[in-house]
Amino acid sequence: MTKSQNDILIVGHRGASAIAPENTLKAFEKAIELKADYVEFDVLETKDGEIVISHDEEISRLTGRYGFVRDLTLEELKTFDFGEGEKIPTLQELIAITKGKINLNCEVIVKGISNKVIKILKKYDLTDSVIISSFKREELLKFQTIDPTVKLAYLDHNNYEMPCNWDKKEEWIQFCIDNQLYAINPFYPLVNQQFVDLAHDNNIKVFPFTVDSGPAMRKLIKLEVDGIITNDIIKAKKVLSEYQQL
After folding, report:
1. Residues forming beta bridges with residue 11, ordered by sequence position
2. What is the pTM of this model?
């Protein structure tokens, strides 16, 4: 039996990034309007120690202006257009518009910011509900040391090399098991029934990324994943509603 729409969570990748500039307040507001379950976003640190939302460390793709987040102050970054007039948001600004409206999946891109991120989440009483995800194993385990109750998800994609042998995928899941992580977030083409079953048998949830095609969504629903990380929240909700009606 496949999971119902209520069982499978929709995670808006960088907000509702199919219809708004990624990782902006507009994208997060759209995700709330579309009733996604989570927004996924990326955190970096500015030159003056502020935690901001951006996937790219070097921001020319996003702004058309060359520069690294770590080399610029928040004030300097706020002068850049991140799409449709949107400015780079801070983690606090994101929390201000999302708290009580949608859950958070915070991806940590760089090392050394775990203490600052946890401090902000604790200030707003969000450590029980947020999911922290990262490709960086050491950084994930730092979060666990700071707050053992925080939900952690390990990201892996085999550098997008296909196919990926089972031994490697099994090792990823074993890392989650050994460290009592909440979830594993794999690149979606790597997910098969064996992958999902091993994770679920060990109480590890599976949230594949980044899933934008209908056929891929349908396949993952049949495999009974726990959530779908997608740029296209509208499409994901439509596909899930089809299964709810079966």
Report:
1. 38, 229
2. 0.96
